[in-house]
Structures are given as C-alpha cells and as structure tokens.
Specification:
There is one protein chain. The protein is 48% helix and 8% strand. Helix 35 runs antiparallel to helix 38. It has a five-stranded mixed beta sheet, with helices on one face. Strands 7-6-20-19-18 form a five-stranded antiparallel beta sheet, with helices on both faces.
C-alpha cells in the first residue's frame, strides 16, 4: 500500500489552477447587473420627477389658462376733439395711435391679406395649427428667410391681449396655445380677426388697421385697395424692417410675398399677382390725422380742461370724443382780421377771444404772432398783460352799482399826484394826450378815457371794491400785487389779465348782468358710447342788477359812437372800450354786442416792448385793436339779424354821492389846460405831447423816427433817380424838348403877358397845372425847358419820399423799403423821354403825398394835397371817397367833415379865380375834354384797332377833332364805344369804392383800393396817353407780397409796350402793325385792374353790412327820485 505522497498515479493529488476567463465573464455580468440596477433606479427617479413636474406644470398652465379670470390688456385709443360744426380739430397726442373699427368698416382685402400671410388655415383650425407650424418652418428654411409666421392669428391676439410678459419660454408658449384654443371656442372667427387687426402693431405708432390706413395712406380702412391692404398685412411681422417710409424696397418685397400668399390661397388671380408685383410706387401719403391740430390754442385749452377732470391717461388714450363750442367760421374771421391788420413779420402779436354772452360759449380763441410760427404759449388764455383803460368799465360798473349817476356826478380832470404818506412811492397820473377838461362828468370822462378822473374815482370807491367787482364780472386772474395788496392803479388796468378773462367779464355786461362761466366743451362721449352729461350746460347766475348793466352798456355804446372807440363802429348795436398801457406796451379793445363779445389784445409776447412805431404810428387801443375787432365782428355777426341789448326791467336807483377828497373842487371855468410836468428828452410822453400840439407839428415831423427813415431812404435813392432821369433822350441836362413842354411854355408866357387862361388862351389842362407851368417862365428866356425838367425831377424826389413814408407807415421791412425806392428811382428809364417832359409827376407826387399824410393821421394836410391834385389832374378825384371812408373809420365823423372841408376849400381857392376871370371859359375847356372822341390808345379804341388789323372793321383816325392835340377814331361806332367806356369808367371806380366800404378799412386796404381806383379810372378812360401810366408807378410800389410783384410786373410791361422809348409810338397814328402793342398794353392795364379788384374783394366780408344805424338808448332816471339828487363835486 502506497502512501498518499507516493509517486503512483492514483494515489497522487492534483494541484488547483484558477479559471480566469470564467471569472472575468462573471465579473462583467455582475457589473452589467449593477449598471442596469442604477439605470433602473435613475429612470424611476426621473419618471417620478417628471411626473411631479408635469403635474405641477399642468396645474400652473391650467391656472394661467383661465380665460374667464383674465382681463384683456387695455391698449387704448385716440381721443379726438371736434368743433361746433362737427369738423375735427385734431387728436390728442398719444404714444399709441389707435381707432377700433368693426370688420365691416375694413376693406375685404385687408382680412384676406392678413389671413393669407399670417394664418392660411385660420378658418379651419381651432386656435392651434400644427400643420401650419410645420409648413412655416419648411418654407422659411427653403426661402432662407422668414416668409411665413408660425403662430396663428388667434395666438397672436392672445399674445396682444392676455400675455403680460413677453419672455420666450415653454410655459408662455403652452399658456398661449391653451388660451388660443379657449378663445377660439368662445368667439367666432370674424370676432378674432377683427380684434387682431384692431390691436396689432403696424409701425410708426399705428395700432390697428384704421390707424395704419390713416398713417400710411391718409384714408379710412374701408377704402384700402388690394395693394395697400397687402402692404399693411405684411407689416406686423417686422414693422421697423418693412417700414415703407424708411425701407420702401423691403416693404415692396414683403407686399409681394403677401400677394403671392393671396394667389396661393385662391383670393386673387395669377394676373392680379403679376400685375401687382410689378408696381413699385407705394403711393404713400403720410396722414396728419394724429399730428395735425387745428386751432392749437383752443385745442390746448380744451385738453387742459379735460385733464383736470379725467386725468392725463384717460384723455390721451381713452378714446374720448370731445365736442366743443368753437365756431370755425368765426375762428377764420378772427385770424383773417388779425393778419389783414398786422401783416408784417416784425409786427406785434395779437390775441382774440369771443364769447356768446347768452351762454358763455367760447366761439373764438386765437392768437397770431407774425413771423414767429409755432408759439406754444396760449396768448389768449394764459397771457397776463396789463388791461389799460379797458379796466375802467369795471370801475364804472362799481360806481353805478353804488348808485353813482355817471351823467350828473362830476370829477376833476387834472394831473393827479397821489402819495398817501412820505414813505410811500408817489403815483402821478396824467391823460394820454396831456390835455385836461377840468370839471367833467364820469360819462364824458369815459368817452375821453380820462385817466385822472378814473384814478380819483378808484380812490373814492376803493381798489378792493373795484377788484371785487371785476372778479364778480368774470376776471379770474389775481388782481393783487406781488405784495398781496390792491393798489389804486388797478382802476387804470395796471394788473395783468388774459383776453379770456376780459371777454368773459365784458360778456357779463352784455348779458344784462348775468355771468356765464366760459364754456368750451359741450359733450364728451366715452369709448364705450357713454356720455358725460355734466358738460354743455351753461352755468349762469346774476352778479349785478340789470339796470346797472344797462347803464354801463349805454356808456360803452356812446364810446363807440363818439369816444375813443369810433374806429370799431360796425353800424349796429355795439359798445366797447379802448385800452393802452404805459409806453404802448399793450393795446386792447374789448367790445360787446347783444350776441357776441370779443376782447382783442395787441403786443409783443416775449416782453413789454413799446409799440411806438408800428406801421409808422404808436399803437393804441383805438388803432389796430379796434380795427381787428371791427373786421372780426363784421364777418362774425354780419350775416345775423340785428338785435338790441337786453332791456332793463328795473329803474336805476341813484344815491346822493359827494366825491371824496380825491374828486377835487370844480375849477371856475368848464375848460382849461394843465401843462404836463417836464419830461426828459426823447421820453415817450414828451413825443406824444409834441405830436399832439399844433404849434409843435413841425418839430414832431422832424423828430419822428418814421419820417427820418423815409428821408434816409430818399437820400439813398435820389442820386440813382437823377441819373436815371438823365439817361433817356430829352432827359435831365439835355436840350431836347419832347411832348408838351413847349405848350406849357406858351401858356405861361401868355399868362405873364396878361392873357387870361380859358378866356384869351384855350387851355386843355385844369387850373392847378399852372402851379408847375408858371415857375420856369419867370426865369430868363430859353431856360424854360431845363427848369421845367428840374422841377419835374423835384416832383419825382417828392414822390419818392412819399412812397418811402407810406411804406414806413405800413411797417414794411428795410429790404422792401429800399427795393421800392430803387425801382422808383429807375422808373424814368422805362418811362422814357416823357418822364420829365410832361407834368404828370406833379399830380402823382401830390397823390401819394396825400396818401402818406392821411395814413400818418395828418388828415387835413392830406385832403389839402388831394384838393390841389384834383385841380391839376382829375384822376385823384377817384381817391377822395376812399380817403373819406378811411378817415371816418379811424378818426370819426367830425374829423372827416373837417378834412372834406379843407379839400373843398383848396380846390375852390384854385379854381374860383379862373372861373371869375373867364366866365364860361373854364367850362368850355372842360366840355371840350369830355367831348373828345375815342383816342387811339384807349381800351375801347384797342378793341376797334384789333378789329381793324383782323379786317373786321375799317378804322379812321382824325387829329384834333375837338381842339385837343390828340388822334382819335372817328365814326358812329367809336363814338358809341367812347360813351360805353365812360360808363364803364364810372362803374369801375364806384365798384372799388363799394368794395372798400364793405371791406376791411385798414391802411393796407386803403393803399390797395387807391391803386385799384386809379387803375380803373385810367384803363376805362376814353383818352389814354403813355405818360398816364406814371400815375401808377408810385402806387404799385406800395402793394405788398405777390400782389405787389404782379402789379409791378404788369405796369413795367405796359411801359415797355407803350414803345415810347423805342420811337415806334408814331406808328400808331398810321394804324400799322405795332398797333397790336398798344392793344396788348391796354390788356395788361385791364388785367392789373382785375387783379386789384379781386384782391380787394377777398378782403371784403361776404355779407352785406347793415345800413341801419341803431340809435343809442338814452335812459335817464329822474334826479328827484333820490333825496337830494346827485351833486357836482364840492
């Protein structure tokens, strides 16, 4: 038996060898099992987390997708303001312009284009279009750019209305999709489409299709064409990129994409698509509906009133429709009245407010600042300027309300020195003209606008009471000084007020003492259709007794008839008061009628700049403000029936009143003059005193700045004028004698020999012509020709000075002033040899000189010059009625009658000696002139000359048929034409008179009417010599603007066509071909007349001004009704 350790095969044990391959396989299996276990664990965790998140998200989305609990965003819409006639005044500015409209108020193309480009399957899906999302992505990738949106119209509407935060997130997308489905279930497709197109942004502040249509095409959404709709439908995707104003090429590409989508959708044919795609003109017409504001001052006033009640947010985007009281016709009349009166860029500004005294409705609120457009400050409602003497109406009202009878209560008119204690500042009061009338009634002092009387009256009444009365009547401005005190100068208008305040206060007087709160808004309609009924109801209450208002009204009426307000007389019941502040810094006219009250202010808005030389005059209340008020009222109430002021239903209650210590004792005489205190040299009051005193008239003219400027312009142009006079043949310094100079010399020589003109000599000229015929004859023989030319050159220089003076008076710019002077100086070259060889420069200089004197308020001098001019040539007679109308309007009846008397006296003094020395001779001369035939240069002859050249008529020329050295057409037809042209001449001149009488009787209109009357007299005269055109040269240079340029061109062309300078004038006598030139010249003069008449007519109110003069109501209460009666100051 062998041992285990033996070497035998069976008995020996085998050694252990490990199986590494199996172990590795086992390890790999175990590792996989562990990974699977981990993955399973993680998967279970992720599933649990996802479930938790999903559940939470679902709950969050469900919470945010509750359509019933969500309020749509308020996008807002524009608020619009409308005038009384329903016309739009504009939209209140807002960041977003939007006007919601129904689908029926949109063009059908707009809806089709929007659906085609934004959501092709809009009518098929339920708010979410998965097919559309896939298609959009495919098309965008294929095109390489965004050509189709992925969101549906419903989703975009949801985004506009309900999604507050526009961040890009899955949650927002899911909520948007959920809401889109619910919105689609709740509302129909048309509702969704209409709301989408009313809220989507189209660029340039336009939200909604109506705002977009107005912004880009100035039309309603209902009027959009196919191409316009396609353009707008493509904008919402990228409004700034496709902005047609800034990027028209990109906009056209986008529009063509929309057209292609319309074609693909079957809405248009391929031909329509092709044709539309070729159009490159977008026909944009930027709208102004959201930016244009009519009547900006009134608009801003209404906007501020709305903001006070509703707040700025509601007013700007609440979709309000605001209806107002403003009357566009009256508004235009007010603006025109201001611009017709103050028409130069350097003129002062003016504001006008008109109120219906029966309701308080603001009918007009306007302001014009010449040469400074875009002034944001409301001069009509916000400006606070001193009222001047217009405030005296409130002092008068307070006095009457205390029972002070203005007719029988007398005050002292004399300079006042008021200093209640040595430590206070003295108050020195004087009148505007520095003339005083001693003891005078309050009524008379009102008509004189006597400051000294009203200063004393204010001191007696108390400034506090005057202020309280002004506040009761309608003044809303504070009437205290900065120190919080009421000062006596308040009664003279030293405290600033607005035109709106003054119009309101005067309206209370016109309404018989009933105050009506100024009303600008009649109705406000909200976006939803509701209406605020608190607007439009007049708020009225009585503040003074009716008899007090009637008494004040009566005195204001007298002031327009015979006081400082005569320039505002409109020929129907009206009253008013002028006002002028220290140094002419402010000028007012506040006037009343039974149906309309208006306050007019004139001044410089930037500062209290003295208006001492505007159009050559110092501006006072009776000048430009009264003119503006009159022009406005004639147009505003001219078409309406004449009404009277409300009658008082109670008798006046007068109390015994003895003026206090400020009234002063009456002087021994009823009239005396107190010299004013000495003023420093150049002081405004000193200049006014000098100009008002007859004995200092020469000094006033010499120191007047307008006169000095005209003299400088004349000195500048005189050398050029003399040089031009020497250029033509027969001119200055030349021996040639042309035209009629030798005839003038024969008349003068005969007169000096003792022959009596018109008896011993046949003279075809009026007697006044001897004023220039005789002076050259007193010099040595042979010098007559040269001296006469020199005399005419002096007349030309005088006419040049008068032209400059008129232009200075009218406020012409320096450029225009010197330009007119240069044109006049060069005119002898155009006139030719006849410029100094006829005496027509003499009446021309007299005529324009008379015009200058009248415009500068030297009426007596002006009419005296007209009297002399008429005796030299008859044509200035056409100007006399115009000048009388103007003087009547600005200076009154008395001044006009005195001026006409001067005119008649001068004319008679010149004509009467000749009539006495040659009985019948003067009449024979006049008759021979009036019996002359049809001169070949007249307009009537021009018609026959044209017929002769055309072979329709055989003209015959005769020479000196009636003793005059002219060539006329003879025959029955020319005689008939001569009679007809004489009738037309009278009608033409009378038409100008009538238009001026009915129109704006301003200085500018007088110049225009004068030129028109002289032109009518000339063009329809039966004998027209070329030198007659000289009459027009100084007049056309006075016309402003395009009218002046056209008139100068017509007169210049007429001078050239007269052919005087080119020596073809004699060809007219043989009826040669150049006769066409004189026909053309007469046609130009006729065109000039028509131009001036049309221009004059445009400044004339369309309605006839009533001729019925309403007598002033004279109500006087019996003094015996009051114990003791009213006493004079003692």
């Amino acid at each position: 038996m062998s041992s285990p350790s033996g070497n035998g095969r069976r008995g020996r044990a085998r050694p252990y060898v490990p199986n590494h391959r199996r172990q590795r396989r086992s390890a790999r299996r175990n590792k996989r099992r562990r990974k699977v276990a981990v993955l399973l664990f993680l998967l279970l965790g992720l599933l649990a987390a996802a479930g938790t998140v999903g559940f939470s998200s679902a709950r969050s989305i469900q919470a945010d997708c509750n359509l019933q609990d969500l309020r749509p965003a308020t996008i807002g819409s524009n608020s619009f303001i409308y005038a009384a006639d329903g016309s739009s005044l504009g939209s209140i500015p807002a960041e977003k312009n939007r006007q919601p409209v129904s689908l029926n108020e949109m063009s059908p193309w707009m809806g089709k284009a929007t659906v085609a480009i934004e959501d092709r399957r809009f009518y098929e899906h339920g708010g979410i279009d998965f097919q559309g999302i896939a298609r959009a992505a495919y098309n965008d990738v294929r095109a390489g750019r965004t050509v189709e949106g992925g969101s549906t119209i419903t989703q975009q509407l949801v985004r506009n209305l309900y999604i507050r935060h526009q961040e890009r997130s899955l949650h927002r997308k899911l909520v948007e999709a959920c809401l889109a489905i619910k919105l689609s279930d709740k509302h129909g497709k048309n509702w969704i489409l209409a709301n989408y197109m009313n809220t989507v942004y189209y660029g340039n502040h336009a939200y909604g299709v109506e705002a977009a249509a107005q912004t880009y095409f100035s039309r309603r959404a209902s009027k959009l064409s196919l191409l316009q709709s396609a353009l707008l439908a493509g904008l919402p995707q990228a409004p700034s990129i496709y902005d047609p104003f800034k990027n028209p090429e990109r906009a056209i590409e986008r529009r063509n994409d929309v057209l292609k989508a319309l074609y693909a959708n079957g809405d248009i044919s391929y031909a329509n698509y092709q044709e539309g795609s070729k159009v490159t003109d977008l026909h944009l017409r930027p709208g102004r509906i959201y930016s244009r504001i009519r009547e900006p001052y009134f608009f801003s006033y209404v906007r501020d009133e709305l903001i006070k009640r509703y707040g700025a947010a509601t007013v700007r985007s609440g979709g309000l429709k605001v209806y107002t009281t403003i009357d566009p016709r009256m508004q235009r009349a007010a603006t025109k009245a201001i611009k017709d009166t103050l028409y130069y860029d350097n003129d002062p500004a003016s504001a006008l407010v008109a109120i219906d005294p029966r309701t308080g409705a603001i009918k007009t609120m306007t302001a014009v600042t010449p040469g400074r457009a875009g002034n944001q400050f409301n001069l009509a409602a916000q400006a606070r300027r001193q009222a001047g003497s217009t405030f005296k109406a409130f002092v008068l009202t307070q006095a009457v309300s205390q029972g002070i009878n203005p007719d029988t209560t007398y005050y002292l008119s004399a300079p006042l020195h008021y200093q209640p204690n040595p430590y206070s500042e003295a108050w020195d009061v004087q009148t505007y003209s520095h003339t005083y009338v001693g003891s005078t009634s309050i009524t008379h002092a009102t008509l004189l606008s006597d400051n000294t009387v009203y200063a004393r009256l204010t001191l007696d009444l108390g400034a506090e009471k005057v202020a309280a009365m002004a506040n009761r009547l309608g003044i809303r401005s504070s009437l205290k000084t900065r120190e919080g005190a009421y000062v006596p100068s308040l009664g003279l208008g030293s405290i600033g007020v607005s035109p709106l305040d003054m119009a309101s206060a005067y309206a209370t007087i016109a309404a018989g003492g009933i105050y009506s709160e100024p009303m600008a808004i009649t109705k406000v309609v909200f976006a939803g259709g509701g209406e605020d009924r608190n607007w439009g109801r007049p708020k009225r209450h009585r503040v003074i007794a009716d008899w007090v208002a009637a008494e004040v009204t009566r005195i204001l009426e007298e002031n327009i008839q015979a006081g400082t307000g005569v320039g505002a007389n409109i020929g129907r019941p009206a009253g008013g008061k002028t006002g002028t502040t220290e140094n002419h810094a402010d000028a007012w006219f506040d006037g009343i009628t039974p149906t309309l009250t208006a306050a007019v202010w004139v001044g410089y808005p930037q500062a209290e700049i003295p208006m001492e030389s505007v159009h050559g005059i110092a501006v006072a209340g009776g000048t430009f403000p009264a003119t503006i008020w009159k022009l406005f009222m004639e147009e505003a109430i001219g078409p309406t029936p004449v009404r009277d002021f409300p009658e008082s239903h109670s008798e006046p209650i007068w109390h015994s009143f003895s003026p206090g210590s400020y009234g002063g004792p009456p002087p021994p005489s009823s009239y005396y003059y107190v010299p004013p205190a000495p003023q420093p040299a150049g002081h405004a009051a000193s200049r006014r005193a000098a100009s008002g005193a007859v004995t200092a008239a020469t000094a006033a003219i010499a120191t007047d700045p307008g006169t000095r400027l005209a003299a400088r312009v004349t000195a500048f142009a005189t050398p050029l004028f003399l040089l031009a006079c020497a250029v033509p043949d027969g001119g200055l310094f030349r021996a040639e004698r042309y035209r009629d100079v030798h005839i003038y010399g024969l008349y003068a020589d005969g007169f000096l020999r003792g022959d009596v003109p018109y008896r011993d000599l046949f003279v075809e000229y009026p007697p006044g012509a001897f004023a220039v015929f005789l002076p050259p004859a007193v010099l040595p023989a042979g010098a007559y020709n040269a001296v006469f030319k020199a005399l005419m050159a002096l007349c030309g220089i005088g006419a040049l000075f008068a032209v400059a003076l008129v232009l200075v008076t009218l406020g012409a710019s320096r450029q225009r002033l010197y330009g007119a002077a240069v044109l006049f100086a060069l005119s002898p070259v155009a006139v030719g040899p006849i410029s100094l060889n006829t005496y027509d420069l003499f009446p021309a200089a007299l005529t324009v000189g008379a015009l200058a004197a009248i415009l500068r308020r030297r009426e007596l001098l002006g009419f005296g010059l007209l009297g002399l001019a008429v005796t030299a040539k008859l044509y200035p007679l056409a100007i006399v009625p115009l000048a009388a109308i103007y003087v009547w309007s600005v200076a009154g009846r008395s001044r006009t009658l005195r001026a006409l008397a001067v005119f008649a006296a001068v004319a008679v003094l010149i004509v009467l000696p000749f009539a006495i020395l040659s009985p019948g001779g003067l009449w024979d001369s006049f008759h021979s002139q009036s019996a002359r035939g049809l001169q070949i240069e007249s307009l009537g002859a021009g018609v026959l000359l044209a017929a002769d050249r055309l072979g329709l008529y055989d003209a015959t020329v005769v020479h000196g048929a009636t003793g005059a050295a002219t060539r006329d057409l003879s025959g029955s037809l020319p005689n008939a034409f001569a009679t007809l042209t004489s009738l037309l001449q009278a009608v033409a001149v009378a038409a100008v008179w009538w238009l001026y009488w009915r129109g704006s009787r301003t200085a500018g209109s007088l110049v225009l009417a004068t030129c028109a009357a002289v032109t009518g007299f000339l063009v329809f005269n039966r004998f027209v010599s070329p030198q007659y055109v000289v009459w027009l040269i100084p007049l056309v240079l006075l016309l402003p603007g395009a009218t002046g340029l056209a008139a100068i061109a017509l007169v210049g062309a007429a001078l050239v066509l007269a052919q005087v300078w080119f020596f073809h004038y004699s060809h007219l006598f043989q009826l040669e071909g150049t006769s066409w030139l004189v026909v053309a010249r007469d046609a130009l003069l006729l065109a000039l007349y028509l131009l001036l008449v049309v221009r004059l007519k445009t400044s004339t109110p369309s309605s006839e001004k009533t001729s019925r003069q309403i007598g002033l109501r004279r109500r006087r209460a019996s003094a015996s009704a009051v114990a003791g009666g009213s006493q004079r100051s003692a």
